[in-house]
Amino acid sequence: QFQIPNSGAPLRLLYVGQIEEHKGILWLVEALRNFRGDFELRIAGGGAKLAHLRRITAGDSRYILRGPVALEQLPAYFAEADLTVVPSLALENCPGVILESFAAGTPVVASRVGGIPELVEEGKNGWLFAPGDVEDLRSRLSFCIQNHALLTEMRELSRRSVTGLDTGEYAARLLAMV
């Protein structure tokens, strides 16, 4: 299960994905650089921009780079996060990281691009922000810091967001139609 965060603890953010420009991780790090809120961003993934990401986060203890991680480790990473951040700058259809986050009971804050708005319900299982809009993202994160207890309440709603999306359940529903 998950731990209820201590009040006054930093907002625990998680990014899981490719370390590439179009995924928005470099933009996210820059957007958070002068953010006044107390946060920690754990980053799991690999890619062509990993060395660059290591350089721009060096010496800043708010950023914890895990590099590529085994799939078995991801449930624990999601469970210990308050929010998963999906800062995509390119169109995304149905990012698996959002579904994985919801399955772990972790709300999401994500770019309002492609199919993402069909997955994220404002204030229920997460929040959306305009892609590339630093102030929009910061206002969402500030709200989350000020309303930290709400994130704990949202965990069950996040889990319910993936009800019926399990491959076995989906196949059973399709078979029931024939």
General description of the model:
This protein has 178 residues and is of the alpha/beta class. It contains 8 helices and 6 strands, in the order βαβαβαβαβαβααα. It has helices at 25-32, 50-57, 74-80, 96-103, 116-119, 134-146, 148-160, 167-177, and strands at 11-16, 39-44, 63-67, 83-86, 108-111, 126-129. Strands 3-2-1-4-5-6 form a 6-stranded parallel sheet, sandwiched between helices. Strand 5, helix 5 and strand 6 (126-129) form a beta-alpha-beta unit. The radius of gyration is 16 Å and the shape is globular.
What's the helix and strand layout?
Blueprint: E1 11-16, H1 25-32, E2 39-44, H2 50-57, E3 63-67, H3 74-80, E4 83-86, H4 96-103, E5 108-111, H5 116-119, E6 126-129, H6 134-146, H7 148-160, H8 167-177
Parallel strand pairs: 1-2, 1-4, 2-3, 4-5, 5-6
Q: Give the class from helix and strand content and strand pairing.
A: alpha/beta
Globally, the shape reads: globular
Instruction: Please tell me how large the radius of gyration is.
Output: 16 Å
Query: Could you tell me the number of beta strands?
Result: 6
Q: Give the SSE order as H and E letters.
A: EHEHEHEHEHEHHH
- The whole-number mean of residue pLDDT values reads 90
- The total of helices stands at 8
If strands are numbered along the chain, what order do they take across the biggest sheet? 3-2-1-4-5-6
Tell me the major beta sheet.
6 strands, parallel
Helix content range: 40-55%
How far apart the termini lie comes to 38 Å
Strand content: 15-25%
Low-confidence runs: 1-6
